[in-house]
Amino acid sequence: MEKQTVKEPFLFKSYDKTIGTAYDVEELKAELERLASADPEAVRYHLAQSHIVQWLSYIGEEELAKKLTGVEDPQEALKIVNTHIENRQAVASPPKKRGSLRRKRS
Predict the structure, then answer these.
(1) Quick check: is 105 in a domain?
(2) Using one digit for the tens of pLDDT, what is the confidence trace for 43-84?
(3) Is there a domain that residue 106 lies in?
(4) Burial letters 50-79, b for 16+ CB under 10 A, else e
């Protein structure tokens, strides 16, 4: 049986206080949504310092990390994360196939 490695969460901090925690991309999205209005400067700081990009790389989310490289605006980051999640969900659940419109001849 394979041993599952638990990754460290991303901690949003404002000075010495933890103001948010994310264990995956979905939780990152939720925290970005909340903190974009509650403490946008903290989000801006983590973006500008590439903390979020580094954490995303650490948890294996290289594609999203690349998309967020250089982004400093919390709202722009949130849009990118939302689009990334939507695209991933679309790939994971392709549309249902419809039956043929042609009728079989008897």
Answers:
(1) no
(2) 999 999 999 999 999 999 999 999 999 999 999 999 999 999
(3) no
(4) bebbebbeebebeebbebbeebeebeebbe
Instruction: Count CA atoms within 13 Å of residue 88 on its CB side.
Output: 11
- 102 belongs to a structural domain: no
Kindly report the number of other CB atoms within 10 A of residue 43's CB atom: 27
Owning domain of residue 31? 10-89
Residue 99 located in a structural domain: no
Percent of the chain scored above 70 by pLDDT?
83
What is the number of domains present in the chain? 1
